[in-house]
UniProtKB/TrEMBL annotation:
The keyword S-adenosyl-L-methionine does not apply. The keyword Transmembrane does not apply. It comes from the Bacteria. Residues 1-26 form the signal peptide. This is Polyisoprenoid-binding protein YceI. It comes from Breoghania corrubedonensis.
């Protein structure tokens, strides 16, 4: 569950800076949610479970000439989690997992984007799930074509860092959750 949320947040965060990096000045980008994906994968026993978050929003302010001055704020609706395993999808919203009744949102905030190569960046920030804030660096690739941009990336998260499914050991449900995103946006 934690990995799902973290994955979604990571995806949204990574996609947002990528899209913003397409103009010489700070720019606003409109995310095309229909063309964008924020997914997570976690191993349960011998089965790989995939999931996503259907509702998230991103505020991005980034000058590609000075990415270190960027600010990114991604908010994920934790109740919008869905998986390819119906039973797990229902479980994730529960108190021992994402506790969506008490913690409706997860956030990723960054005030620093670091270039790591040609068209690649790290968004340095903090991921907050269930009011637990953990530093996080999210690597991504950015491709800009005119007023359109696409950011792809991913990372891994440790569900125990956020007390998600804490009673479930790593042999039953892997403690590491893989998060992947592909964000498509248009310049406003």
């Amino acid at each position: 569950m934690n990995k799902l949320i973290a994955g979604a947040v990571a995806f949204a965060v990574l996609a947002a800076p990528s899209l913003a990096a397409t103009s010489a000045n700070a720019a606003e980008w409109a995310v095309d949610h229909g063309a964008s994906k924020l997914i997570f994968k976690v191993r349960q026993g011998d089965k790989l479970i995939s999931g996503s978050f259907g509702k998230w929003d991103a505020k991005i302010d980034m000058d590609p000439e000075a990415p270190e001055t960027a600010t990114i704020e991604v908010t994920v609706d934790t109740s919008s989690v869905a998986t390819d395993d119906g039973q797990m999808g229902q479980t994730l919203t529960g108190e021992a997992w994402l506790a969506t009744g008490k913690f409706a949102k997860a956030t990723f905030s960054s005030d620093e984007v670091v270039p790591t190569g040609e068209g690649t960046y790290d968004a340095v920030g903090t991921l907050t799930i269930k009011d637990i804030a953990v530093p996080m660096t999210l690597p991504f690739m950015l491709k800009v074509d005119g007023d359109k941009a696409e950011a792809k990336g991913g990372s891994t998260l440790e569900r125990q860092d956020y007390k998600i499914g804490s009673e479930i050991d790593d042999a039953t449900l892997d403690g590491t959750v893989k998060v992947e995103f592909d964000v498509v946006a248009s310049k406003k």
